[in-house]
């Protein structure tokens, strides 16, 4: 079957074609005979019951540095009448602009398949949705109060402090046992973000890797182990981490079996979870990454699995 697919994402000029998951999914979609359109989330327009956006058809896509895409002329597309599937793939931050886009896309779901389900994305911010599975998590606190953070730090000795709505490992801090910076860090977070922040017990085994596991329609598609570079605790590839081949442990299989049915039921078709030393730390539903490295190590084809799930639902 051939589908008209609108990809809501960041500018094509800015993506890393060698490792970007959205680019890999788009390449696979074109190879399967689907027609793809590109537009930006900020261009959505709702009027008189119609949701439209100025978009350009992707006429050519190739993994060629400096010459990786060609686009057609600008057209205003109706996301309900002209499009079969919308891929919501713009990068976070998960802010009010992101939330607004989910509300608008929710209004076309009676006619158009949106991946991931916009209401479920809105209700599943990465560092809050994971609290539904606290039994798999390291000790965790969400607060804005220095007194709370200090008590947690004293109890656990070493902690990690991170913003609730950050991404790609940005603004993640390790506070050691005798570190005197917690008060200043709490003050800084309070000035930069209105929201509470997350404090977690530090897991020393992060030096052995932070495992990214990708699930497609609730089933494991593959995994990589991301190793932090020397002098870092952040293992995100965007923060300089190095990917390595891996297999799932029995504990990780247990986590995936607990999450999988819930993710599928919520319409969260493409999800990445992060596990450190058997502890679940995040569930990424906004714009998960990692499938290029997973497929390179394992000889798999995760984009094909994603399209097979999309095609089945679009029928």
Automatic annotation (TrEMBL):
InterPro entries in UniProt: ATP-grasp, ATP_grasp_subdomain_1, Glut_synth_pro, GSHS_ATP-bd, GSHS_N, PreATP-grasp_dom_sf
Principal EC category: ligase
Protein name: Glutathione synthetase
A single MF term (Gene Ontology): metal ion binding
Family that this chain belongs to: Belongs to the prokaryotic GSH synthase family.
PROSITE patterns the UniProt entry points to: ATP_GRASP (PS50975)
Record HAMAP family: GSH_S
Assigned EC number: 6.3.2.3
Positions of the ATP-grasp domain: 127-311
Keywords: ATP-binding, Glutathione biosynthesis, Ligase, Magnesium, Manganese, Metal-binding, Nucleotide-binding
SUPFAM superfamilies: Glutathione synthetase ATP-binding domain-like, PreATP-grasp domain
Pathway membership, UniProt: Sulfur metabolism; glutathione biosynthesis; glutathione from L-cysteine and L-glutamate: step 2/2
Alphabetized Pfam families for the sequence: GSH-S_ATP (PF02955), GSH-S_N (PF02951)
NCBIfam families from the UniProt entry: glut_syn (TIGR01380), PRK05246.1 (NF003573)
Keyword field contains Cytoplasm: no
């Amino acid at each position: 079957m051939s589908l008209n697919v609108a990809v809501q994402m960041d500018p094509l000029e800015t993506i890393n074609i060698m490792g970007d998951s959205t680019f890999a999914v788009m390449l696979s979609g074109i190879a399967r005979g689907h027609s793809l359109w590109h537009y930006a989330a900020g261009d959505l327009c709702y009027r008189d019951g119609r949701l439209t956006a100025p978009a350009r058809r992707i006429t050519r896509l190739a993994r060629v540095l400096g010459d990786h895409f060609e686009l057609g002329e600008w057209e205003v597309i109706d996301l309900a009448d002209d499009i079969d599937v919308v891929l919501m793939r713009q990068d976070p931050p998960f802010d009010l602009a992101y939330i607004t886009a989910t509300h608008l896309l929710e209004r076309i779901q009676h006619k158009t398949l949106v991946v991931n389900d916009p209401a479920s994305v809105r209700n599943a911010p990465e560092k809050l949705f994971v609290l539904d599975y606290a039994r798999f998590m390291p000790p965790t606190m969400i607060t804005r109060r220095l007194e709370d953070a200090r008590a947690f730090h004293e109890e656990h000795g070493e902690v990690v402090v991170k913003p609730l709505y950050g991404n790609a490992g940005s603004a993640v801090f390790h506070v050691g046992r005798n570190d005197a910076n917690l008060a200043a860090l709490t003050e800084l977070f309070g000035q930069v973000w209105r929201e509470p922040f997350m404090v977690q017990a530090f897991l020393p085994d992060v030096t052995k890797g932070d495992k990214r596991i990708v699930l497609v329609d609730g089933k494991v598609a593959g995994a990589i182990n991301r190793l932090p570079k020397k002098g870092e605790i952040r293992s995100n590839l965007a923060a300089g981490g190095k990917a390595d081949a891996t297999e799932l442990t029995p504990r990780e299989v247990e986590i995936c079996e607990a999450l999988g049915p819930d993710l599928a039921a919520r319409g969260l078709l493409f999800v990445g979870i992060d596990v450190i030393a058997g502890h679940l730390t995040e569930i990424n539903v906004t714009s998960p990454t990692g499938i290029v490295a997973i497929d390179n190590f394992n000889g798999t084809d995760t984009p094909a699995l994603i399209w097979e799930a999309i095609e089945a639902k679009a029928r």
